[in-house]
Amino acid sequence: LTEKLTIYIKTIKDKINNNFSDFDNLLHLEEKSLKELEEKLNSIKQELNELI
């Protein structure tokens, strides 16, 4: 029983760690996308300012 419980707990820990890793990766991608969007918006803003 103890061995089965240990395996079960390890499996749950692994799943939790994998979920956190996935979340970290998604967060990193989201931050990268936001930074790119911000750069594009700044570029558009600069172009608009040149037109005025």
How would you portray this structure in words?
- The chain has 52 residues and is mainly alpha-helical.
- It has one domain.
- Helix content is 96%, strand content 0%.
- It contains one helix and no strands.
- The chain starts with a helix and ends with a helix.
- The model has no long low-confidence stretch (mean pLDDT 96).
Number of helices: 1
Distance between the termini: 76 Å
Task: Output the helix-strand order.
Answer: H
% residues in beta strands: under 5%
How large, in whole angstroms, is the Cα Rg?
23 Å
| Average of the residue pLDDT scores | 96
C-alpha geometry: rod-shaped
Secondary structural class: mainly alpha
What key phrases describe this protein's structure?
52 residues, mainly alpha, 96% helix
Concise account of the structure shown:
With 52 residues, the protein is an all-alpha fold.
Question: What does the secondary structure layout of this molecule look like, with pairings?
Answer:
Layout lengths: L1 H50 L1
